[in-house]
Amino acid sequence: MALGQSKFVEKLVFGIFRISAFINILALTLFLYFIVKNGISAISWEFLTSPPKDMMTKGGIFPCIVGTFILSFGALVVSMPFGIGTAIYLSEYANNEFLVRIIRLGVNNLAGVPSIVFGLFGLAFFATYLKFRVSILTGISTLGILILPVIISTAEEAISSVPSTFREASLALGATKWQTIKKVVLPAALPGILTGSILSLSRAAGETAAIMYTAAVFYSPHLPKSIFDPVMALPYHIYVLATAGTEIEKTRPLQYGSALVLVVLILLMNITAIYIRAKKQDKV
Amino acid sequence: MKQNEIKIKIQNLNFFYGEKQALFDISMDIFKNQVTALIGPSGCGKSTFLRCLNRMNDLIPNSKVEGAVYFDGKNIYDPQVDVVSLRRKVGMVFQKPNPFPKSIFENVAYGLKVQGIKDKYLIEQKVEESLKMAALWDDVKDRLGESAMGLSGGQQQRLCIARAIAVEPEVLLMDEPASALDPIATKKIEELIFELKKNFTIVIVTHNMQQAARISDYTGFFFMGKLIEVDTTETIFTKPGKKETEDYITGRFG
Ligand SMILES: Nc1ncnc2c1ncn2[C@@H]1O[C@H](COP(=O)(O)OP(=O)(O)O)[C@@H](O)[C@H]1O
Ligand SMILES: [Mg+2]
To answer: Which of A198, A271, B37, B185 has the fewest other C-beta atoms within 10 Å?
Structure first.
């Protein structure tokens, strides 16, 4: 009887887990179906390759795609050196427990700050105080800080999970600490560091609040010429069309089309990075 | 004891992991071009002692060393000693094979490259030489570019030996290098040690007494952090001076 009961509990628990997993997939599928169904009609070669026209009620989203690429990769370029540097410091060099705890506390708190606050900070500090104005530079600096916690914590985790036997082997061969980090620890941690970068790249690409005061404009007749120019960006474009346009209903297909492109873009970024990571792993 | 040139002289060495003392007042000599085996029950401090000889224990937080280790007459614990160049002269092979997740070639070339050697031809030559000396060349000469992780355990350990000897250290420290290997691979490593002793001074930790008897010229017996006795291997195994040594080698404990 007791055995039968525990078997039943086993089955029940297993069933609940399976249902949760199933609901998860269902939600994702529904979401994708909804976006694709509503957005696919807007997609055309012209939509992808031309700028908006007629007060943004027609035309394409080419400048927004370009802008989103610039902002997200730019944020990564700004953030990675600091993030990886901090991670190396925390996991390999820091020997002051108190300082390490303070830095961790700072990083964790940074991770919990709402993105609109980053946006306001970027506006006040980079745009106004440093006089970068509303520009790519301000945007990628702001996004760079926003994604810093993810980069730091994933890089730190990747670095500390490199077996200490590798470090010992390297040091025993007469390598310096920095040579050991550069030639053994970082290459072994690279797949993990890349994973963190992928996550933050997607996060930056989809970010709206952090760029609306710092980098994005609702319309720009040409592509940016330098990092001191503002850009259009997909998330902000969707936001503008859906809330501030004069023809909100009429531009619904364009909104969904843009959303579809954004989702696909993020998926592509992830797939590319996962591919790079898998290749890197093969090569060791 | 035979009259040999002293390569390393250890004097009154104490070692602490935090509050816990792991080595007690150890003094011994290690002779040039001889194989010195360190035996004793597990946890008695053999690895700790070995890692004092190339200052690998520096990596352990809150550890403390007292006493002196003279390498060619100079104390390696002097503050002005450069640990990096010490470790180039005192190589180490670990208990578990630990090749880098790099190609076979890169593993052996690593120590040369970190020394700043750029000459490709010289590196290739050294890699080949070291792999031959480690009796691994024939196994791997056609796949030097492949990952070292694909080798068998025994091959990995011989690769680690090749990697260690490529930088031409004067002393080779080996911490139970064959403990993770099967008998055939173990035999190969033992033969190898016999060859290597022509060029290197070898200190090897082993918990296998037959192995110590087979391969070493001198044997030191450790027990609970103390060096009970050190002498020629023959003396230790035929007429040990201390009761504890005799008990251990006759298998009465350990
Ligand atoms: N990193 C460490 N921290 C604290 N204690 C250690 C550490 N490494 C070894 N010890 C302790 O020191 C003693 C000697 O260990 P070890 O030198 O590894 O012995 P052996 O190699 O002879 O088996 C053991 O009691 C062990 O638990
Ligand atoms: Mg040991």
So the answer is: A271
